[in-house]
Amino acid sequence: MYSVLVCGGTGCTSSGSQKIIDTLQDEIKKHELEGTVNVVKTGCFGLCELGPIMIVYPGGYFYSQVNPENIPEIVQKHLVSGEPAKKLLSKDTISGDKITSLYDTPFYKKQMRVALKNCGVICPENIEEYIAMDGYFALNKVLTELTPMDVIETIKGSGLRGRGGGGFLTGEKWELAAKEKSKQKYVCCNADEGDPGAFMDRSLLEGDPHVVLEAMAIAGYAIGASQGYIYVRAEYPVAVHRLQIALRQAYEYGLLGKDILSSGFDFDLEIRLGAGAFVCGEETALMASIEGKRGEPRPRPPFPTLRGLFGAPTVLNNVETYANVPKIILNGADWFSSIGTERSKGTKVFALGGKINRTGLVEIPMGTTLREIVEEIGGGIPDGKKFKAAQTGGPSGGCIPQSHLDIKMDYDNLLEIGSMIGSGGLIIMDESTCMVDIAKFFLEFTVDESCGKCTPCRVGTKRLLEMLQDISEGKATMEKLAEMEDLCHYIEETSLCGLGQTAPNPVLSTLRYFREEYIEHIEEHRCRAGVCKAMTKYAIDPQKCVGCSACSKVCPVNAISGEVGRKFKIDPAKCIKCGACYKTCKFNAITKE
Amino acid sequence: MEKNQAEKTINIKINNIAAKAKEGQSILEATKEIGVNIPTLCYLKGMNEIGACRICIVEVKGTKNLVASCVTPVEEGMEILTNSPRVKASRKTTLELLLSTHRKDCLSCVRSGECELQALCKQFGVEDENRYKGAMPKYRQDCSTLHLIRDNSKCILCRRCEAACKNQHVAVIGANNRGFDTQIGCAFEKDLNEVPCISCGQCIVNCPTGALRERDSCGAVMEAINNPQKVVVVHTAPSIRVSLGESFGLNIGANVKGKMVSALRRLGFDKVFDTDFGADMTIVEEANEFVNRIKNNGTLPMITSCCPGWVKFCEHYYPELLENLSTCKSPQQMLGAIIKTWYAEKHNLDAKNIVVVSVMPCTAKKFEIAREYQSAAGSPDTDYTLTTRELVRMIKSACIDFKNLADEDFDPLLGVSTGAGTIFGTTGGVMEAALRTASDILSGGPQRNIEYKEIRGTDAIKEATYKIGGENIKVAVVSGLSNAVKILDKVKAGECEYHFIEVMSCPGGCVNGGGQPIQPSGVRNFADLKATRAKGLYEEDKNLPLRKSHENPTIKVIYETFLGEPCSRQAHKILHTKYTKRSKF
Fold it and tell me: What is the CATH number of the domain that holds A42?
């Protein structure tokens, strides 16, 4: 009896995992193995870099970057003859003659899966698989054994903090809403994940949608709400589809709706699709959007726990926050608070990306060092390059330089050094990254995503971006740099909502740790990473040039002249710095500085 | 901001001075009470409390960021700094940023001198050229309607127009796009004439800058005045006399009727009449129409039709109630029609050579004069209508020393009016005027009681029942269309027993009309414009010898010699109109 788990997350689906499942099933039929092999389409395993991914149980044999052409061999060898197809297994799992389980590989060894417990393990479209993993047991416990106050005390005792960026204590939030006297209250889920490169919530919804439903029902019971909304971006079609299936099943099983588990507790849940505005991740804007209004934040107070959705007390938590809730209920507050650091309990999921060998989704106990994540879990920087910085918290966050590589990742430590946990984006940068350019990239994002309601964010961020552009084009002065910093502080302290208040963070944190790069751009007109186009100079090294003329042929503006067989030359006045010659030259004769 | 039931006093410190404040009060309000103003741009009390512009930010001890004082309630022990260097620097930066996207043609801008942005820039020492010069958004202009022009290059996105429009239950404008490209406009970037805008102009009077203004007719009027072939007749609406003075440094609500008439003569108008006469005429027709409806089982409740914003609203949003609308033209149109028929005939003038100009507190009047069924003499009853603001500009450009003018009287005949006509300018006035006449008709003789105090005042909805000629007449008076909707929905559902309803689209009636002098938000938020201006009208009414429309001597002559009976065939031809069903989308 074999179970074959094939990843059906967005990453692996894009790299063709559905084709693998189809081929697998054909082969199984061919070999008449239908009764003995169970194929499961799971959610994300986290190792997107190595997709499509397939795991065979028993044993947990890990096949990576699987090609449909490999399937007949895997079926024949592993499922028919009982011998793993060794040469198709992931290299990480092979040491000499020994084959290890996926979970013993460096990528997984340091991880601790709490929120992602079921992701990549169960079929997200089958409620029974969720129930088999103790799913809805927490809801059952809550409804049959605990009072709403017990639930709140447990969550408070666990020390769970919001995983969406703010880091507010979840139990306290629930308590505030529970205290309000109101006929109508709401529970909302923020699944409007929007940081560039972040996909924690998407993977969770795709891999384990029921956990969110269960946790929301628990929150509803705790605060006295009978209606919930999941606000999820329409750009997450797989997540939406699986949520819809999960909702239908939960209703069929009586785990949502009227009189859940004969407890007398009613809880209805609906999905609301977001149109992809980043600002709708801000709680008041999200609620405005659910109400059918323009997605714009409003001033607080009143906070949503007092007056939220449709004016009623509302609890809004992020997907990952909810994913922790059933486990806390089942395992106890003490268990959860034993994980992590003094003031940041539990684990955190990060979307690891950028210049790193193993990109993917990682869940680590709070307090794991950045070095462990980069060097051990992520497998270091590719091409032998040096680590330069890690960017956390997306466009609201900041950069962590090499000097802080040993920082223990938690809410407070990151804030202290000018960054933030945020929702969990973690982008690794090597020495080929220009920090001015990075600041510009994130600010461009915020400028695009500003809702336009308040002046500092609407106009201020735009002007800030223009100043950065001037720096990257060598048009700025040191005076302007000081003005730019003033503008950053103005936007921070004057903006209406979190989006604006944190928008200058990428600029401020790069200024904090990489000020010399800004000064180089301004005073020397030099971009040490060779990224800022306006400052890049291309030249031909006459020692290396063989006069093949390849460079002059690809130059789109005829800036390169010379005769075949002789040395070629670039006219800097004509050159548009597209880099085509640099990429074309086979003799490394083109220099870039 | 939520009002607390029991007003608890709390202790705060403002600029290091101990002060008391009411719990639930905003920092802005509490600070105002100790004699310190905090500048605002987006804030409109009770209407636009969105904390968007960030000009009203203050420092609160213990808070990392600056807070918007307009939307932040005071708390016990709060220590507030409204004038610290940090606050001042922040305000200046906000202004500089706003200015960096603002088309600065301040020398010629219609709002120059009355622009809230300009005033603040001066106050905070912001210079014309600033350090945040950069790209400008691609701005849209909207010149599609007869009543207003939107120039988004002067818009600061305070969203006050949007709030005013929403407050009118019309809500055809709002923010489009996002971020730096945000602009106010109609859904799908449609032009304003393609959406059910009712032309009330509340967006304009609430705009702090020159982004919104009325379509200007001053030039055309001056051209007519300068044309020797034309007899140019002007008449002024009741509410103008209590608002015009504000633009010349006089108190809000000061009655400047005499100076106004002098100024109009000095501008070169051939005749200066009083729209109050038209109002009297309207009352005689409308009161008789009402009596007829009562007696002949006509459609009830009857609803007034003198407000063109309301009429257009009814056509778009409540077409099923058009039967309930009085068929009477508005005072402006009745007077125009009488000038071009009876008056022309009497003075042997060719109606084609008469140019009728009205001065109105209203932008919807610009739409009204172009309506169908408003041309008794074959040409439009009114040729040009000016808002109070346009008249101010004409007076100023003619270098007339308004403040020091001697009082003059309206010209005879059509300058004669009663107190009933005067109170048309405020909410409840039309109903009171109509009741004064209807009561005399239904009771068969002059009645003593002519003050209907239950329907006075600036409450949004006023209801009363009067025993008139043995009948209990139930009336309702409503101003501001979001209030009107509450009554109209009941009428539609057949849930109310009103006989007569007065609707004015602008909150408070014409005294607060969309064509009136613009008072900055700093004044609007703390002074009751509506009540103060209305007070001037009731005072005039009280002191007039004639206070019932049907006692107007010229009106008597006109019926005797020209129209016959009220609501006669001839009266219908000249003084009544028809309505058109209009779509909502």
Answer: 3.40.30.10
